[in-house]
Amino acid sequence: MTEQIDPSESLIEYPSDFPIKVVGIMHDDFSQAIVEVVTIHDPEFHTGKVEMRPSSGGKYLSLTVTVRATSREQLDNLYRDLSGHPMVKFVL
């Protein structure tokens, strides 16, 4: 059970655009896999809201996805799904 936070105590104002950085091993399907996960939580999300940046050595790919955050619960669920994805190394 997730703890309910009073909206007045939240540092985020909902709804708002919220950037999330997702890092994984460089792979042809990484970006598409992350877009699919994000779209579950933000149906309006599209690939135009993705910034890609490869690491200097080319081993990792960093994606910044900007989602439309509508609640703390939505963001918590999205972070949980992204963090649990087998292609993801970490989420910020």
TrEMBL record:
Origin: domain of life: Bacteria
Pfam family membership, one: DUF493
Entry-linked NCBIfam families: PRK02047.1 (NF002533)
Record-stated family: Belongs to the UPF0250 family.
Name this protein carries in UniProt: UPF0250 protein GCM10008066_20640
Protein's organism: Oxalicibacterium faecigallinarum
UniProt lineage: Bacteria, Pseudomonadati, Pseudomonadota, Betaproteobacteria, Burkholderiales
